[in-house]
Amino acid sequence: MLGRLSTDALPFYSWVALSGAVITVVTFIAVIGLITRFGKWGYLWREWLTSLDHKRIGIMYVLLALVMLLRGFVDAAMMRAQQAVAHNSDGYLPPEHFDQIFSSHGTIMVFFMAMPFLTGLINIIMPQQIGARDVAFPFLNSASLGLTAAGAGLVLISLVIGRFSTAGWTGYPPYSGVTTNPGVGVDYWIWAIQLSGIGTTLSGINFIVTILKRRAPGMTLLRMPLFCWTTLASSTLMIFAFPALTVATALLALDRVFGMHFFTNADGGNLMNYINLFWIWGHPEVYILILPAFGIYSQVVANFSAKSLFGYKSLVFATMAIALLSFTVWLHHFFTMGASANVNAFFGIATMVIAVPTGVKVFDWLLTMFRGRITFHPAMLWTLGFIVTFVIGGMTGVLLALPPADYLMHNSTFLVAHFHNMLIPGALFGYLAGYMYWFPKAFGFTLDQRWGKRAFWCWIIGFYLAFMPLYALGFMGMARRMEHYEIAAWQPFLVTAALGATVIAIGLACLAIQLLVSIRNRANNRDLTGDPWDGRTLEWLTTSPPAPYNFALIPHVHHFDAFHEMKLRGVAYTRPTRYEDILLPRNTGAGVVLGGFAFIFGFAVVWHIWWAAIAALVGILVTVIARSFCDRIEFLVPASEIEEIENRRFLNLSKGNAL
Prior knowledge:
Layout: H1 15-37, H2 41-49, H3 54-85, H4 95-129, H5 138-157, H6 185-213, H7 226-258, H8 271-305, H9 312-325, H10 341-353, H11 355-369, H12 378-400, H13 403-409, H14 413-443, H15 449-475, H16 491-520, H17 562-569, E1 582-585, H18 590-606, H19 610-628, E2 634-637, H20 639-655
Antiparallel strand pairs: 1-2
Helix pairs in contact: 3-4, 3-5, 3-16, 4-5, 4-6, 4-8, 4-14, 5-6, 5-18, 6-7, 6-18, 7-8, 7-9, 8-11, 8-14, 9-11, 12-14, 12-15, 14-15, 15-16, 18-19
């Protein structure tokens, strides 16, 4: 009845695994207990879990991302500690547990930290930047969040029940095949990615339709803020790239569950088909993660340089060029496959070419700062740290684009350093910049800047300490994912890398302290005007936090710095002569129910509990059908209520000396 599930699934194979499971369970119980103790279940259900307000859904995405950032960092710290002490010794991690850790670290950071973080920021800001009241499909937004949370839940429960994959975050066969890896770990990985991937694809569709159909009057495509352009590019990549990953992991599941031979090493299977499909998704995924961060950097640089973006159109064209070229470079991830010299040369050249539009962006940002009145807000520090660090990572990428050099350094720690050198400053620094930049817009008060700056300096110093030694180790011949080693010359570099991870941990602590201090002092840091940074784009026209409808009157746009241009003309805070009723999406629990059934389905398939899997599928189908028959999907906000909210807004504007 319970398939493969038994008491053997409990993590007694390692004291480290058991400790992690206990901490996970205790934390979960503590959170449930606190919510119950303060009687907040009704509030959470009414105001958050069932809300279709894009801003609240975005905040929940970011909260999920921050939780998974902490979880993924714990894995990273454990790997660094193991390698620091594992010279001529077994260290403290059993080999199989070490393999689980590097697999879960990559999976969490890419799928369940970075993707929710960027999706959350897009949800909160993009509709406001284009002058919209919500995304095009509010319920689809809630369903996407439910599917993403279900995937994250499968990864987290693998800490407690069963084991996670040992095949790496890429899941290459034969390591992920049922013969080599017969346990449940790879199945957890497959279904976590399947669920989150479907949610991401739906989000991409939602964002594209919102941008193309919901822009304010006068906002042509070339009047959109750069963040909206990068969102459009990233969302386009989502809907074209993620199906490749969905198909690849589905076929791998068929190999494992039904004994098929898509990716086996015999009976007509071909391992390289999987690797091609994975990286046809994988390299566009790099730009799915990085392009929204590029948009954030563009907004931050313009705002804190007190200038319009230099070369706005060139930034737009560079963004779309990167999106297009990202589909032409996937083979550089496996030059060692054995393709012909001509094939390798083509993909090597394409990889170098994609650096050109990225260079255009860097020069445009630098020229925006040139002769600007720069304010060193923490968001600006993240941006400056990104520019310097990302250029270093880009140069190492051009080196790896040379097939002979790649042959030498393939699967070494040089590659680990390069990959992190692109994604930590290229994506995570951008998300943290956006988090600090737009926090007052989401919550109505600013974050403490002192702790924000301390967090930045710990992250940037820790990054260089953690990853620069890995470049050297790659040249010295150290392969990645080594659980122990015998070469004494490597250990000082690995100890330095572990020190860097410690400094980053202090940076994470600074982020937590920043949030706590800011909440404590929120009364003194209220954003009364909705525009604490003298912003340039439309999100700063709304209140902080915005009303459920965002804009009582949809603005008319004349420039890509729409709000700045309105302030110059003196029409930013003009009262309308009359207000009109507004229709908004009605709350629904269907998205939460879908996510719950999806989690049950994934867990049941992992453990071969087929009756539960069928029941969950029926539940998903019934929920979707029931939702499709629901006619009362909107509610009306009367003009009188809107006028009352807007009167309070203008009173706050007066108190904040904005009028």
